Amino acid sequence: MGEASPRALAPRLAARSDRAERTRQRILDAAAQCFAASGFSRTTVEAIAAGAGVSKALVYHHFRAKEAIFEELLERTLTEWERVGRIDEHLTAGSTLIDALGDMVRASLAYARSNPLVRSLYQFDPLVVSFVGSSAAVHKHANEGRARLVDAIQRGIAAGELRRDLDPGRVADVARMLVMSLTEHMLNPEWLDASDDRFVETCLEVLFHGVAAPRIP
After folding, report:
1. Nearest to 127 by CA among 67, 59, 47, 48
2. How many CA atoms lie within 13 A of 131 on its CB side?
3. Quick check: pTM over 0.85?
4. What is the DSSP letter of 188?
5. Residue 46, class by beta-carbon neighbours within 10 Å (0-12 exposed, 13-18 middle, 19+ buried)?
6. Each residue of 108-153: pLDDT tens digit?
7. Which DSSP state fits 65?
8. Domain 1-63 - what CATH class?
């Protein structure tokens, strides 16, 4: 029998590629659950393989090491977190920048509450802290998100919604610090319980009072 033609092989190759991608995603999802439950340092490749229902060898076939799994998960998580927290996503017709800021904070917290890897990041595992601190992906997403927020704040000032004496960069940093601090205290509520929606709304009210343009009588 002759060799199959490239056209005949294409569907088989596509199906194989699809299966491989589904396996990769299953490994990533299992790793996220393991990292959230046990932390990065205490999670083993064997545990990830068991959670994904695959062999340890298959995990290594797709990822060179546990660190590579975490790196890809981190990039995926940052991309999703950034998407739900984009200020422009919340600037709908008829909404003000202050409305959008509130919706941005609430959406970011909701994502952090539901995503298992975010919980792992806030366990302050020394290896995770070191990895995140040196990650180019983390710095890239942080810088891009800040730039978009600064631009939106500048537009809010120009539109008369926000005080004209504000420094857009500092306001953006305060808003981002609020999200990160609330996330930390939501996931580690030893000192403050940021899972309390009323507490979150109080924080937003204080922020809004500080940045809103004075009303003209």
Report:
1. 67
2. 20
3. no
4. S
5. exposed
6. 999 988 887 777 666 656 667 676 767 777 788 889 889 999 999 9
7. S
8. mainly alpha
Domain boundaries, the chain: 1-63, 66-217
The answer to whether the CB of 183 falls within 8 A of the CB of 121 is: no
Judge whether 90 and 148 are in contact, CB under 8 Å.
no
Distance CA 64, CA 17 (A): 19
> Which pair of tokens denotes residue 121?
């990041």
At 45, the amino acid letter reads V
Q: 191: which DSSP letter?
A: S
In this structure, which amino acid lies at residue 186?
M
Q: What tokens appear for 54 in the block?
A: 């695959």
Q: How open is the CA angle 102-107-112, to the nearest 5 degrees?
A: 130
Amino acid residing at 7: R
Q: At what angle do helices 136-158 and 168-187 cross, to 10 degrees?
A: 130
pLDDT given for residue 20 in this prediction: 82
Q: Phi and psi at residue 162, in whole multiples of 5°?
A: -115, 160
Whether the predicted pLDDT of 9 surpasses 80? no
Amino acid of residue 77: T
Q: Taking the domain 66-217, which CATH number applies?
A: 1.10.357.10
